[in-house]
UniProtKB/TrEMBL annotation:
This is 3-hydroxyacyl-CoA dehydrogenase. Residues 6-188 form the 3-hydroxyacyl-CoA dehydrogenase NAD binding domain. InterPro entries: 3-OHacyl-CoA_DH_NAD-bd, 3HC_DH_C, 6-PGluconate_DH-like_C_sf, ClpP/crotonase-like_dom_sf, ECH_dom, NAD(P)-bd_dom_sf. Residues 191-288, 348-401 form the 3-hydroxyacyl-CoA dehydrogenase C-terminal domain. It comes from Deinococcus cellulosilyticus (strain DSM 18568 / NBRC 106333 / KACC 11606 / 5516J-15).
Amino acid sequence: MKVKTAAVIGAGTMGAAIAAHLANAGIPTLLLDIVLPDQKDRNFLAKQGLDRALKASPAAFMDKDRAKLIRIGNLEDNLKDLANVDWVVEAIIEKLDAKKALWEKLDGLVKPTTIVSSNSSGIPMHLQIEGRSDAFKRQFVGTHFFNPPRYLHLLEVIPTPSTDPDVVKTISEFGDKVLGKGIVNANDVPGFVANRIGVYGMVRTLKHMQDTGISIDEVDALTGPIMGRPKSATMRTADLTGLDVLFHVAGDLQKATPEDEDFTLTPMFLQMIEQKRLGDKTGQGFYKKVKENGKSVILTLDPETMEYVNKGKTRLAELEPIKGQPLPERIKGLTQLPGKYGEFMRKVMMDTFWYAAKMAGNVSNTIVDIDNALKWGFGWEMGPFETMDALGVQNVISYLEKEGRTLPPLLQAMKDSGRTSFYQDGEVVDVKGQPEKYEAPYMILKDLKKDATRVVKSRPGASLVDIGDGVLLLEFHSKMNSLGEDAINMVFTAHKIIEEQGFVGLVMGNQGDNFSAGANLPLILMNAQNGDWDEIDMAIRQFQRATTSLRFSPHPTVVAPFNLTLGGGCEFSLHGDHTQASAETYMGLVEVGVGLLPGGGGTKEMYLRFVDELPANAPLLPALQRAFETIALAKTSTSALEAKKLGYLRDSDGISMNRDRLIQDAKAKVLELARNYVAPTPRQDIPVMGENGYAAIRSALYGMVEGGFASEHDQEVSLAVARVLCGGRTNNRNARVSEQFLLDLERENFLYLCGKRKTQERIAHMLKTGKPLRN
């Protein structure tokens, strides 16, 4: 079984988004829906779904050109086309009869090697295939995506007792390596894993909010990032998802689960459902956005009056002492808060712990899958069992017993054994509380570094780690992975160690939140304000030496960017022998936003790339214009696919759909390159346009300033970029320069801009507000 083609049945929000993500992965996909009797266009619903996906925010497509891989149709004219696809996934209405009717049509129609799956979020899979042939039952499996499927990592794979193990293996590997999903093996029970436990937690949070009398905004202050949860926390998440969705899911689970699993919603919540306060879709839920004095203001629902009030930004003084601490310490601190906040947090956490332990062996056969489901589907930083480890499992057990609760079998086994954690020394307990060996399917750097011999060198801002097979990893770990002295110096240390200790090559990557947000702006600003030009000059020289060393070292270097890869982070990526990027890489040379230009070789490299793409003897102006627009407009990719279009990635660079596999994929590329590696040499013959190119750019900028589209300082910054790209202002029409000449121009113009008051104002404003200043 191999999945090379796919079909999605149901072009609603979810179905169209699944089709879009299949296209993101390069899979030709057929998108089908029913025929509406009153529509002349028999493909109206499928077309509408595709159009919706193209306009979706956040974007469903990594590159809108990928929409060309989707062919639309309908379930009458195109049903026969399903006979030859490799995977059919259903995303139609959540009604059992409708799903059974669809499977009846497909039974005997699809080829024996086709995988057929349902994206149902709650209807048990075995019920859907009652009455189907044995052959169809073997090729059927549940595949529950989370919305939006491009961004949420979780894919629950739910086999029935009849599902062929090869089907589970094939779809799991495809979901992991091709679609980039985190795979959780779920049992075929109501709610599966993430929704069963996550929705229970939300429902109980509502109850404890009611019982303790804390406000909606206070709940979100307590259950958001401080707790290792998304910024939308609990109540804002409900608004985003839709209160009606929570109402229906909780209601279905209440009917399908035992009496002690209380999914009862509070009277206030039910009143909101009656009043159609369903969240963002109706303009009001727990929160309501209004205009006051021309500005958008978020109002919060007062449960007592059921009126919306402006409470401003909620800051709880009780949280200040634990802010900034590592997550395990914050979790402990939350349980120890005084008064109603502590009572609320203890009750919320203990409900989740008790229920997750009760569900072990029910919703899934491993606690790892339960932890991953909540992390990947609900955006938690730690799953419930990992959180219990942070608090101490025996402490959790003691508290539950004080509440008079009967311990689930798993926690009873932990109590009897006296074991203090679920994860320990390469082991994890099974659902019966017995320890067993555990090895993650991906390379996890924090686990690898527990072996001290793996850490070859370490500084506060960067480390060198032996990741096996002769490959060395340079890892950043400063705030936002900004590039300070530690990161730059560690590049030179890495090259030295590779040569002295016999490593074969280098990966530059990490597993933080972002690859790198760029240079250390506070240091640049301080030196500029103090007039320490020699310090800035030396720093830029060192940075240029570090970036270019990736290209010209005697061993292969592979850069592994992901998420924010801005400014200097982008410049490092541009200079590796190869870039292995995460599909979700937001890459750009954004220095003009703070009144600077790319000074670490980025300006030079963009021009070089675009010149090299020109046909022999072609005019240079198109390459110059393209490089200038990319830098002067601070163009930033919204995906790795778009980064290729913008020129930040080469056609030969790789894309890893699953970020969890990024370091492994980069390591594999180093080993491949090392087999026959020959280092390139710096270029000496780069053609430049000189004064002719500079004049063309200056003329265009003059029109933009006169038209009010750019400020005078925008023009000054852009002209500095132009001076570098044009190779200075030579009048020699056949001028050719070296890479080092362009690097020197970068450095000189970077220093020139640092000395401008308006550039310093832009840097200061960015550091203070996180937003660019137009001055």
